[in-house]
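Anyone? Bumping this.
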Amino acid sequence: MWAHAACGSSTLVDVARKDDLGRRGEECAALFLTKAGYRLIERNWRCPQGEIDLIAEHEGQIVFVEVKSRSSVAFGHPFEAITIDKLARLRRLAAAWCDQSATSPRRIRIDAISVIAPFASSPTIEHLTGIF
Amino acid sequence: MSVARTHAIALLGMTGSLVEVEADISANLPAIILIGLPDAALSQATHRVRMAAKNSGSALTPHRLTVNLSPAALPKHGSGFDLAIALACLAADNIVPPASIDKVVHIGELALDGRLRPTAGILPAVIAASKRGHRQVMVPVGNAQEASLVPGMRVIAVASLREALIWHGAAIEPVDVDPIMQHDDAADAQTELDLVDVVGNDEAVLALQVAAAGGHHVFMLGPPGSGKTMLAARLPGILPDLDTAASLEVSSLRSLTGSGLGRSLVTRPPLEAPHHTATAAAMIGGGTGQIRPGAAVRAAHGVLFLDEAPEFAAPVLDALRQPLESGLISIHRANATATFPGRFQLVMAANPCPCGQYGASDKECTCPPNARRRYLAKISGPLLDRIDIQLGVQRITAAQLRLADTEERVTSAAARARVESARAAAAERLAPTPWTLNSQVPGPWLRGPHARLGGAITAGLDRALERGGITMRGYDRVLKVAWSIADLEGLTSPGADQVGQALYLRKGMS
């Protein structure tokens, strides 16, 4: 879809499609977590160091969620895109969020959600808990 | 999420240990964690396995795989574990039935496209698997012939990971690939040189045959151009074929060094001629991680030829004393000890002095006397003492060259036939004893009631002992060589002539 550079579409359109896919993936993930009994606290929380996709509360834990979306696994599984550097940044961002929150949470957890959303069919969602 | 296990072989020197390869999938980010003391090549197996699996139509799970090589404390080397790791990972994901891979030993290195590459050390690995009660082994097609040399093993040869998965019952489409074959070093091994090329030097040719018949070590001393190297290179050609046990050992060693075996076991004795700058590690073997056999080990059951012997470092030559004594080479390293066979026939050649001309009839030596003495003193007494045949070799003269056309010369085939019958005679005579070759028989037995020669026969030898010309150990060695000469000539026991000849072969160079 967005990766088809050869089909004549401009780069700008590709980026727009990519962002679109990312937003759609985050939407799916938020829905998935709510159904699973998570209470959403923040979405796309930003600070100078970066952005956390989803922050939720579950069984007394604050859960920081990284959402990775792909339209297919042709360029690897979404989870493969979560590198050590990315995890380290997520850990720093979680600390930054805790610093600014009114009540400092006792237990935190870092999760990852992969959304494989092929064009015109229902997405596949996988959820990994405690990846750090 | 489940656990699957299969088997592979870890080689330490020539001995293989069975390794259990377990794979577990846990809910975490994609990664392969390999534990159980892998070396650098084995650590990189994770990358090969991931790509090979993807390109074989069954990608690895996008979760965390933990692969354990048990026993965890045993150091493991090389790329031969790739196939077992890939199958364990895929079985943990239920792509192949875990029960099926548990019954087979898997050996082979994976290429990124999923094909299997021939792997070094297949023969000793399959022998180890067989000894530990396994009956099925899966190997790359390029190693199939080598693996099938082990009796009683069912060899499953596969060209690719895909083929291996299908054999174990995975539901994927077969795809034909070009199997990767092993370069066959055995095919382009040089042909053995023939004794018929040697002109003149009759006594040296005879000495070679005596050495071959009795398994005696040889030291040749002579000026440059006298044919020492030429003679030594022809010794393996007159040795008899290897027996079954020796053949399996030589083949295993060749497999371990990564050179191809071809269709059959090695049956001819090997020749190793290391350069005189060789270190002790190059000579007997070594290495910090993986312990590799050295030249002396590769020469097991064959000939180790040291040209320009005094040029070798003294510690290198003295490192040979242990194998000469025990027939085994043990290499000790921090994490392990490897034992290799080390029963070779030592042939050394040397010039009499640094300029090489001392004692030559046609040129004058320019070395000062102390340089001459120091030169040969580099070969230590204890080492020289273990060498039964010590021979002076002279350059041939123009007259000898002219005569050579008219004289009949010994061919390697004829010499080998004589050596074989001599060895058979010795083996028959020594049947009640634990020895088979004259060089193995201890001196007291030769002087004892079983083999005592009459006083008249040993008179010359006794006189040499009385005059201090030879030591008691030298006396025993002369007797051994005398028996070899008698065997070669078809006599039941040596006479005065044979003892005299043996004494000459021992003292001929001084």
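Late reply, but here is one note on the structure posted above: The longest helix of chain B spans residues 412-429.
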